[in-house]
Amino acid sequence: MEKYSFENDFLTLIDNALNLSIEETFNPIRLPQSPTDGERIDGSLVHVIKDDDDQVEEAYLTVDDVRSGQWQLFYPSGTCKMEAFYQDNQLHGPSTFYDEQGNVLAKSWFHKGLRQGKTRWFDSEGNLISLQRFVDGVPKGIQEYYNPDGSRKSFILHEAGKRPCEVQSQL
Length: 171
Fold this sequence. Notes:
Structural class: mainly beta
């Protein structure tokens, strides 16, 4: 069974192949649609970083100087480049990168600061170009890389406590 989701304030990371089973309530504070630096939301302080043209580059939340809640990076056009979440100053939950049209380029999952489960990378056409597996922040198993037509280009095999032991290229 495999399930990766963050919906209805519930984080689920289940992947039997990786022996991963995380299910918990996670209700991070969200940034407002148009964040303002210094604004307060439910006890959180909004931080906004702007570029030289006064365009928002980054917005995030802190509670008592500790990152907690939603974090976003933006393209100069104002569209979202990246969205992730923090809990107690550590990445927690999904981390997603987008192109300027809003298509997903990469999606990773974190739990208490450590990458967990499958990370998927996509090209601008939506084709899977890399599938990487992590347990407690460490690569585990086969890390796969794909050609645009979906055929496997190469892979690296990671075993616990060992250097990558095999690199295969399929051209």
